[in-house]
Amino acid sequence: MKQQLLAGMLLLSSGLFAQDETAVKYAATVTAVDLKTHLTIVAGKEMEGRETATEGQRKAAAYIENHFRSLGLKPGNGSSYQQMYPVYQDQLTEKKLSVNGRVFEWDKDYVISLQSAASGNWTINETVFVGYGLVDSLNNDYKGLDVKGKIVVALEGAPGSGNATNLRMNNPASLGGKITAARNNGAIGLLLVSKDFPKRNASPVTGNMYFAQQSATANSFITANISEAVASALLGRTSIQTTASLLESKKATYKAELKLVAKKETLNLESSNVLGVIEGTDKKDEYLFITAHYDHLGKRDTVIYYGADDDGSGTVSVLELAEAFVQAKKKGKGPRRTIVFMTVSGEEKGLRGSAYYGNNPTYPLAKTTANLNIDMVGRIDPSYKGDSTNYVYVIGEDKLSSDLMKITDAVNNKFIKMELDRRYNDPKDPNRFYYRSDHYNFAAKGVPIIFYFNGVHRDYHRPTDTVDKINFDVMEKRARLVFHTAWEMANRDEMLKRDMPLNMPPR
């Protein structure tokens, strides 16, 4: 194996490093000082955590676009640097629940689920109590009950389970399981009796963002959590019953006038990917993408999630790499292939920005030689065994192209000499990092990828992921590794071979 690898590297060397000195010269322009300058702004207070479809994200996009423009990069989406894509969000504008004229209070006695609520105004004169509302191999709480066109009342969890909020959605005792059972039996809604009232914290009236517009009838099912007091009123009890005493109630239809209002408004938002382009020379109709995601988690009340490492570090690495290639081009050393520098949003929402690009590419994916994706390269994994100041995790090289690993090894041995850790290529990796960043949406379209990553740490997805904790010297070295790899891929005679299966199950 070692002899084969050596032979492959020797074969590569004849064409790979003809411009060694030039590559080293421009790689040296990627500096810790410049990286820190950019990151102090991108992960600063003014950007408010850069959550997708927020003002903070738009400020970050403007900063990136202005940098690309100042370098002289061409816009990567026609005449625009930004590729806009739609984002939707539901907002509860009116809410009300009453039983027999008694009005109950939001957060004290009920909460309506925005994710699974229709928008409407209901007056219901009968509800059906279904106990725990379980349907599985051992139970059928709907047996003998007619719930078609009715709202059912069910207790939270399962006998002896207590609160079931942490159960997987396909568990019959989970909220998802109970909704499925109610729907399958023809119910139009579910009221889940919860002990978690009154709420300690205010429940949101604005839902999660989503990315495919729903039809007006998409949510024809109403779901709400109700207190034991509301359940008692619906079951005709004059005093508030505990869950234990409610269990003594017969599974049956109960008459009570339930009035429920849940009026939603859908907000039409936008987010964007930011693309800047250096046009190639004799192979300008072939493309290399260098990417990172610039969005993060935003803020919760007044607490900002700065996202310095995740993924401010990758974002500013892209900015620095763009500048290095621009400087080379100004001296007549521009890349043979066109390089597209793209920072995407929506990663923290499920790789949405890169998915949108993959489905709406501005450059042909069949002519895209590779995607080098940089996501978290500014910190050190506290569990790393080795030289913690001289390593990087490289992910995805064993998929799609047999050229990838050869190039990485050759470039690293020649220029950087870092420890390349490939542990996360294991298909059985429980962290599933291969699926969790934007390279995946290139790989899913057949484009060879490399994902550069430093591993997680205790500040991951916390407000404490701040600039002062970044190791800029290590970050500089990792970014230079990406530069040299990109230099080789942009200048070699042939596009990367696509001669290997993805060898991974779908995301």
Please, could you describe this protein's structure?
It is a single chain. The protein has helices at residues 2-16, 20-27, 32-42, 55-71, 175-184, 228-234, 243-246, 308-330, 352-359, 403-416, 440-443, 472-491, and strands at residues 74-75, 82-99, 102-104, 110-112, 120-129, 151-155, 189-193, 206-210, 222-226, 253-278, 283-293, 299-300, 303-304, 337-344, 368-374, 391-395, 419-421, 449-453. The chain is of the alpha/beta class and 507 residues long. It has two domains: 19-80 and 279-399 and 419-437 and 459-491, Aminopeptidase, CATH 3.40.630; 89-267, Glucose Oxidase, domain 1, CATH 3.50.30.30. It has a 16-stranded mixed beta sheet that branches. Strands 12-13 form a two-stranded antiparallel sheet. β2 (82-99) and β3 form a beta hairpin. α10 (403-416) crosses α12. The model is unreliable at 4-8, 13-18 and 162-166 (pLDDT under 50).
